[in-house]
Specification:
The structure is a single chain. The protein has two helices and 18 strands. The longest helix has 23 residues, at about 5-25. A hairpin with a 2-residue loop joins strand 13 (about 180-185) and strand 14. The chain has helices spanning about 5-25, 145-150; strands spanning about 30-40, 50-55, 60-65, 70-75, 80-85, 95-100, 105, 110, 120-125, 135-140, 165, 175, 180-185, 190, 210-215, 225-235, 240-250, 270-280. About 10% of the residues lie in helices and about 35% in strands. It is elongated. The protein has about 280 residues and is mainly beta. It starts with a helix and ends in a 6-residue tail after the last strand.
Length: about 280
């Protein structure tokens, strides 16, 4: 095996090992919320009802109990598919499913029917697609769009400008505001460059981002700036999964780069990027 091939193999193994170590130690902090009110058939609220919110991909469950007014709220949730189960003595069990996006506040109200708790009333699409509970204006790019949209390079910040009103990429300016007026969060932790005002120089890997949301107006008071970018990394599911990538650019086939070093020959541009990532099952993280 040549020394060049050996060095390349070592680089690949190092990248894969670093990705595995990171996925084991990291724990994403979501920014989404599911809340609602539990009613009976007469639209009277039901206090003390048991509510269980479960992530379908990871089976991670959060439990709560409705207040005296029948209200419940479960916050700090990541994006993904969720199942909500509501139980109360003397009523049938209510079960609903929904798709939750980054930063979304989904209102899931449930109406319990009188009967045995062993009987289940199932509802699909429990939350409305359009959120009417808050005034912020936001745009979400999910994992499929991040993977399929054309991108020059592998910087996630290059996709920020796809949101109306945003320009500047890694140093985003939203609706004419200056650089530094946008908060940028990675799993709930600020990644703003305190000196330059943009995103910190070490950006999250493109393959590690599951979704990102950009709020261009009306961000809530919990955020420190008028506009907010929230990035959420991929979390473990019940199976091991990962990815391997190779990016190659070469203009030796006659393509000319924009910048010319002299009047006789076009500059040579060759770029190779290799990498790998892996996420362990959530059950062993």
């Amino acid at each position: 095996m040549s020394s060049f091939t050996s060095k390349r193999l070592i680089s690949w193994l190092s990248a894969a090992a670093a990705a595995v170590v990171f996925s084991v130690s990291a724990s994403s902090q979501g920014t989404a919320t599911i809340r609602g009110t539990v009613f009976d058939a007469t639209r009277a609220s039901i206090p003390g009802a048991n509510v269980v919110v479960t992530n379908v991909e990871t089976n991670a469950a959060r439990r709560t109990v409705t207040s005296a007014e029948g209200i419940y709220s479960v916050s700090s949730l990541g994006s993904g598919n969720y199942k909500v189960i509501v139980e109360s003595p003397g009523f049938k069990q209510w079960s609903g499913t929904l798709m939750l996006q980054t930063g979304q506040t989904a209102v899931v109200d449930s109406t319990l029917e009188v009967g045995s708790v062993d009987t289940v009333v199932e509802v699909t699409g429990a939350a409305p697609i359009i959120t009417t509970e808050s005034a912020e204006v936001g745009d979400v790019k999910d994992a499929q769009r991040i993977r399929q949209l054309p991108l020059n390079g592998r910087d996630i910040t290059s996709l920020f400008t796809l949101t109306p009103g945003v320009e500047g990429g890694g140093s985003p300016r939203v609706n004419g505001m200056k650089v530094g007026a946008t908060e940028m969060l990675l799993d709930g932790v600020s990644v703003v460059d305190r000196f330059g005002g943009g995103m910190s120089r070490v950006q999250p890997g493109l393959d590690s981002v599951n979704e990102f949301r950009i709020e261009t107006a009306g961000s809530q008071a919990q955020y420190s700036r008028p506009a907010t970018v929230s990035l959420v990394t991929k979390s473990g599911t019940n199976e091991l999964h990962g990815s391997v990538f190779m990016t190659h650019r070469n203009n030796s086939g006659g393509l000319r780069a924009r910048q010319r070093q002299n009047g006789n020959a076009s500059p040579k541009l060759i770029r190779n990027e290799y990498g790998a990532s892996a996420v362990l099952p959530a059950s062993i993280r």
